[in-house]
Structure formats: structure tokens, C-alpha cells
Amino acid sequence: MESSFLDIKKAVDSAQKILLASHDQPDGDALGSMLALKFSFEKLGKKTDVYCNSTIPENYRFLPGIDQIKKNIDPKYDLLFGLDYGDMKRLEAEVPDVPVITFDHHPLINQAGQMKVVDTNFSSTCEIVYQFLKENELEIDKEIATCLLTGIFTDTWSFRHPNTTAKTLKVVGELLLRGAPLRKIAGFVSQQKIDIKSKIWSRALANIHQNRKFGFIFCFISFQDMQELEATTNDLSGLASLLCMAPGTKFSLVLSEESPGKLDGSFRALPDKEIDVSYFAKALGGGGHKLSAGFKTEKTSKEVIKTIEQLIVSD
Ligand SMILES: [Mn+2]
């Protein structure tokens, strides 16, 4: 059931203690939407905790409130907000026996919630949060605006992704007027751990496979390589987008072995090539968007590639 922002605000009003959670390996949109709501609910006098069990990437450490994110939370809350997680499998918090509200711009799959706004017409979950605050006439101060702009900036790939609508840019304008520092955000989120990253990328790039017939390019990074260079899947972010730039490519896949036998896959597709990579990701037990999707699997890299090729042939 789609719920109105006004009804959701009533649920917030009647709660005293609120928990905010999102997906593992959080990105700018997950962190930005959780922190923006935390600031907003605290202004309403609610005790609000943000839960995140994953390591927070260094380049989001500039976000206001980031040090208040918790790994240990209380046993009980009155209300849970699940944000930007796409699929119940990815929601970090266990769903307690209390009302749940979901804000998400991923396709509707199995997101929890007596009340939810799950709408792919929004660029990001941060844009949904903005709309929620706006319709309820809740204050958007500089801190909140900074969190929201970070999520919009990263989820629109710096306003280059086709999800960047005129409405999105209007919201961006509003957030700038409220003091969100766009240049600072752009600077921080594009910072990379160059040393580790350049080594793991060069190893990945030396091991590229291209299927010209299908316009498909992929690389596999073994656990041994990851371990030797002390790299994590975070160090590989951006690589799948780079692979897409190879001539003749429609979509790319970066497969990394996070732990022995356990693969993490990250797909990217080019907007104008009519490929929906969430279709492949779903078949492999994951999910995501048309141009950006991911999965985790215990299949081998050969089996993964075979699955994708079979899906293309049978389509
Ligand atoms: Mn998002």
C-alpha cells in the first residue's frame, strides 16, 4: 500500500523511540537519508538511533552526524524506518514487532512496512525524504540539506544518470539555498583510497574478459588478490562504470571474491543500450536498478557468466 507523507508523519508523532536502518555497505543515499531523518526527528523531540553494522566508507566521514551511527542498538523501539534497501535481504536491521515504514526508490519487491513509499520516479531515497519533510513543513536546515544533497549527488552519478529529472534539480536548488555545500560534497565523495585502489584495479584490469557478441565485459578478482592487497569491495566501486566505457560495451560486471567461495557482483549498463542489468542480478539472487545492480552468490565465476549468457540467449 502506498501511504501519504502526512499519514507517515502521524506515525512518527505517536512514536517516542525511532530506529533508522538501511542496506549493508551503505552508500551516500543510504547514509544521507538516515542521517537527514535522524536530525529531523530529533527536532521533533524523538529519541532516534541510526543503525549500521557495516564499515562506513572513509569518503562519507564528512557527513554531519556520522559519528552517531551505532552498531549496538537498544532492544526496543516504537517505530522502524527502512531506507533505500531495495530488498528485505539487504535491510541490516531485523524487523521487530513494531510498525515499519519504508522509503525507497528501488522497484517494489518485498519491502517491509505497514506504510511505505516505494517509487522509482524519485532519483534517490534522499529525494523522497526531501518530499516527506516538505509536505509536512518540517525544517530543512544546513545539516539536513547536506545529508540529502549527498544522497542525490551520488545516486544520480553527479547528475549524469537519466534519473536526474527537472524535479530532482529543483530539489537540488532548494538544498543549495539552505546551505548544502555542493563543492565540498563533490570533493569528498569522489575521494578515493588511491594506493590500494590503484593496485587492485590494475590487477582487475589485467584480467578483463570481453564477450563482443553480447556487448558484455567482466572481470574477476580472486580472494587471494583481495587479501594480498587488503582490498575490500568498496575499493572496487567505480570499476564497473569504467569497464562500460570500453568500445562496443553494453554492460559490465565486476566479480570479486569477498571471502573464499563467496562472490560479490556489481553490474553497470549504459543508459542508451536498452539493457536491464537488474534482470541478471535478480536471477543471481540480488537486485537493483536497470543501469546498476548487484548480487552475492556462492556460484563460481564461470557459473555466473554462464547464467548471464543463458539469460541473454533465451530472452
Ligand atoms: Mn539509493
UniProtKB/TrEMBL annotation:
InterPro entries in the record: DDH_dom, DHH_sf, DHHA1_dom, Oligoribo/pAp-PDE_c-di-AMP_PDE
Domain DDH: 17-152
Single GO MF descriptor: nucleic acid binding
Domain of life: Bacteria
Residue ranges of coiled coil: none
Pfam families: DHH, DHHA1
Domain DHHA1: 228-312
Gene3D superfamilies recorded: 3.10.310.30, inorganic pyrophosphatase (n-terminal core)
UniProt protein name: DDH domain-containing protein
